[in-house]
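Aim 2, interim progress: modelling of the NAP-bound target.
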Amino acid sequence: MKILITGSNGQLGKELVNQLKLINRSMNQPKYTILATTRDDLDISNQINVDNFIVYNKPNIVINCAAYTKVDACEDNIEIAYKINALGARNLAVASEKVNAKLVHISTDYVFNGFSKYPYIEDNKTEPKSVYGKSKLMGEKFVEQFSHKYFILRTAWLYGDGNNFVKTMIRLSKGNKEINVVDDQFGSPTSTVDLAEVIIRIMETEHYGVYHATCEGECSWYDFAKEIFELKNIDVKVNPIKSKDFKCKAQRPLYSVLDNFMLKLIGLNSFRRWEESIEEYLKEYSISEN
Ligand SMILES: NC(=O)c1ccc[n+]([C@@H]2O[C@H](COP(=O)([O-])OP(=O)(O)OC[C@H]3O[C@@H](n4cnc5c(N)ncnc54)[C@H](OP(=O)(O)O)[C@@H]3O)[C@@H](O)[C@H]2O)c1
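Predicted structure of the complex, ligand included:
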């Protein structure tokens, strides 16, 4: 089975490649031919290149891990955000359809406005408040429009091998005795390990559609920071602050907890609770630090 991964240098792309290679190694004959592409090999915003690459290589499954994920920078670079997050998804959907490939596309909790008091399920009304969220929602719509065999997985608060909140907190703790973290935004921290496992399981099914795909449970960024420092035994004071006092360009949803309702219905919700996944991640992170 030939699998094309875009954005394979990103957090999720790296983890997927790792897990697919591990599966290959565990078998007599490798199960997957992995085409791991970075932006340099395959810029998803270039329609002609995407078409040529996919038509030539004929993957069975395309997994789109590429995105413009700098949420605040999207507000200033609107065209770049839409070119990558919306047109990039469209290019992959159109080309995948030509070779009858399944398309796994990753989206975000930022497609919601964040005003809910309950976890969002897949058919709740979308209303993104940031350029990032709007461009990702347009990407979802293109995928639905141009691909017949798609899985859209909306995830949130992702951490893995790359830049993320966890690493930022640990870095900040090194030069500061106190750190201010917002306590009025709620979500579900999600490990790329858990997400990649679900992607690999769902991609071989025909359960096409839109899915919420986050670790179980919810917390605020403040709770998350406290948990990280406790697990790492780092002595730093965390001060709870409000979003209105933490100035950033993009408006973030205050409550973007996702219910993996559809994954539960098809019996593929293997996500752990967020506390369990972060504990495992931090054990491995301490190894890579030394
Ligand atoms: N991170 C989160 O908290 C979060 C939350 C919700 C949803 N998501 C979604 O989850 C997915 C994976 O996120 P992630 O955290 O793994 O992102 P990431 O670490 O930022 O990786 C994104 C990758 O996409 C590449 N890329 C950017 N523009 C590209 C282009 N035009 N063509 C090809 N590759 C391009 C980047 O390469 P360069 O480094 O060269 O730019 C990078 O390697 C994305 O769809 C994201 O929207 C992420």
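The pocket of NAP is lined by residues 6-7, 9-12, 39, 43-45, 65-69, 84, 88, 106, 108, 136, 155-158, 162 (CB under 6 Å). The chain is about 40% helix and 15% strand.
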